[in-house]
Amino acid sequence: MSDLNYQINRVVEAFVAEITELARKAALEALEHALQQAGKGRVASGGRKTRAAKKQAPAKKQAPAKKQAPAKKKTAKKAAKKRAAKKK
Q1: How many helices (H) and strands (E) does the chain have?
Q2: Phi, psi of 54 (to 5 degrees)
Q3: Is residue 83 part of a domain?
Q4: 37: which of 26, 41, 42, 63 fits an S-S bond (Cβ 3.0–4.6 Å)?
């Protein structure tokens, strides 16, 4: 029985080592790809543009937002009166 456990452990350890190596290779390939894209000025992960991309395509300016009209004084006074009446 001890021999069987030894064989199982050896197979599992070999499997884990192989999976670890594959994961390491995949991570290196992903990193190389990301670095190549960053060198070309493409959008980096996280949605941020790289420095090269910012220099190539300036962002379009948006129209300024419209300002809201100030609240009417009468409305504010009425609201204050209602609050005072509720407190009593």
Answers
A1: 3, 0
A2: -65, -35
A3: no
A4: 42
78 domain residue, yes or no: no
**Cβ pair 56, 41 in contact under 8 A:** yes
Run of H or E residues at 25: helix 2-39
Q: Residue 83: its pLDDT value, please?
A: 76
CB 68 within 8 A of CB 58: no
Q: Which residues pair with 43 in a beta bridge?
A: 49
By the 10 Å C-beta count (0-12 exposed, 13-18 middle, 19+ buried), 18 is classed as exposed
> Could you tell me the two tokens for 57?
């395509």
Query: What domain count does the chain have?
Result: 1
| pLDDT tens for each residue of 14-53 | 999 999 999 999 999 999 999 998 888 655 555 555 565 5
Query: Which of 49, 53, 31, 33 is closest to 41 using CA atoms?
Result: 53
